[in-house]
Write a structure and sequence with these properties.
The complex is a heterodimer of chains A (387) and B (317). Chain A has 387 residues and is an all-alpha fold. Chain A is built from 15 helices and no strands. The chains are: A mainly alpha (387), B mainly alpha (317).
Chain lengths: 387, 317
Amino acid sequence: MSTPTQTPASPPSGGDIHHSRLDDVSGIVPSQVHPAGRRPALVIAGASAVVALVLWLGLGLHVAAALLLSFVLYLGAIYVTYRRIGGARVAVDHLVRSLVYFAFVCAVVPLASVLWTVIGQGAGRAFDPDFLSQTMNGVTGLNDQQYAEGSAGFVGGAYHAIMGTLLITGLATLISVPIGMFTAIYLVEYGAGGRLGRGIRFLVDVMTGIPSIVAGLFAFALFTQIFGIRDAKMGLAGAVALSVLMIPTVVRNSEEMLRIVPNELREAALALGVPKWRTIAKVVLPTAASGLASGVTLAIARVIGETAPLLVAIGYARGLNWNPFDGPMNTLAVYAYFMFTKPLSPAVREPSLERAWAAALLLVLLVIALNLLARLIATLFAPKTGR
Amino acid sequence: MNAKAPATPTRRDRGSARAVRRPGDLFFSGASVGSAVLILLILAGVALFLVVEAIPALTAPTEEISGGRGFWSYVAPLVFGTVVASLIAMVLATPIAVGIALFVSHYAPRRLGKSIGFVIDLLAAVPSVVFGMWGMAVFAPRLVPLFDWLEKYLGFVPLFADASSTGRTLLTASIVLAVMILPIITSVSREVFLQTPRLHEEAALALGATQWEMIRTAVLPFGMPGVIGGTMLGLGRALGETMAVAIILAPGVFTWNLIGNGNSTIPAEIALNFPEAAGLRLSELIAAGLVLFVITLGVNLFARWIVDRRAEFSGAN
């Protein structure tokens, strides 16, 4: 281990290391934070919270404007205070710290707002057994108007969309996993370092960047060429479009997992005379199994919420269609989109919006569940590396 | 020395003996090479089929295209809208993403860092249609006061000329896009920040640098190519993002005004018009998709080039 004993020959005169009081500087280096160093910041934060409240409730400013204004005041106060305590460098350090924390809040606020909205708007309908078991077959704007007047119950659900989502995503998984997995095997086991290998890795990177709607257009164009323009819209086209988006994710995740399988395992197997394919199938893949499974789950989570390619490739079905090889289908994302933007009854939008938010909630729950599942697989079934 | 002569043929013999054709080996290497080549074919297919379907629009007489002034005048304002919205999103998202990445890699406690990473992943997991619904129903109305304010005090700038009363504008869509590309820029940046050589950081701290000075002198220079690459990847994502824009934006004709109604992007134009399109209109939309494909391809290639260039010299550190 190289210890940092090699101090530079020249004194730290360059840059902006001024002759500030070292005691104060060392007080805020993260490795030895003294609570005292943070206390002024906490006091200022408390004060600016009060200022925000006064601006909002007292002066009637918009809540966002009040928060922003008090944050600017907070930054100014932080700078001035720490400049007096510890000099300019300490002040800048604290300023940046505040900005970094602010950046994090900037990401959390929209996420919280999205989740809050989806749950608040969708929870009322999403777990209604009727909603989960009915399709939109025969449901019209009239039903919604009657429901709004109170003369009829709520009809219409997302059963067909849920089944469509599962079918199409399942098909896409069936297409993508073998292709993606074998490509990863090629990249790691067969073509490593070769020209084709490098070329393929580059193309996979390019493929990652294909816009989802372009994938949909590709599937549509492909199926139009094969089946003619009238019969082009079918579930399989959607699955192909999703595969275009899913394959690069599967390849990247699997490649990473295969790469961390220790080479000694392969060499040991090959030295015992095990054929290469058996080495891959019986040694490499089982070792990486948990990583592969979690990678595939993440890839599914990535495409299950896709709307644009399906909008283009599978059309829009009101009823249940079990056959992905014939006719339009529906998925939760497309269902939510159409219910949201084209309500059944333009006059009474509320029931359609309710359906849209319920579908959105189901979709978000599905995606979160898949993400958690991926993490669970990765941690629970991780191979025992080392001795 | 004598052994050398017979050694070569035996090695050759062994080589040919190893090449016994086991069905399993044939299947595995065949399937692997086949899948790899299939990826090549898919990409070529994407380009090919889009071109085939786009040709009617590209060769049609100018007056038959929507707008009546030829395909390129039809697609130019859409390209403008797409690029402007994505650039605004990139400019808004990058500093915040870098801040979050620094927060996770250098400011937050280790144990907290992991769960924060999960929160950011969650942001990436929310489907775009949900972002679109949220943007239109919740976010856009909240922005109306801001737009009014902008019009009142900055109205002399053509960008803020005429405020929309619904908030469904290009700027709103850009802000939502910024939220959507935050996770990708954050994850790439976080990755490179964490790879900063520990000794560089410790050297900076040992010289008496504050934490920010350490980050500025050791972490940021090292991570800059990664940040740029991540930003470009985010730009590519924003360029192709469809549903959020399609739902939030009230599309219209080209205008410089960012806070009023008008403008559209290529993906939104396709998503909004495709279900009812037929004939030449269909071909027009596919041709617009081809233009989008080419633009994102360029941006992504550039991003990859930057990230890979960094990978070459980072190994030496």
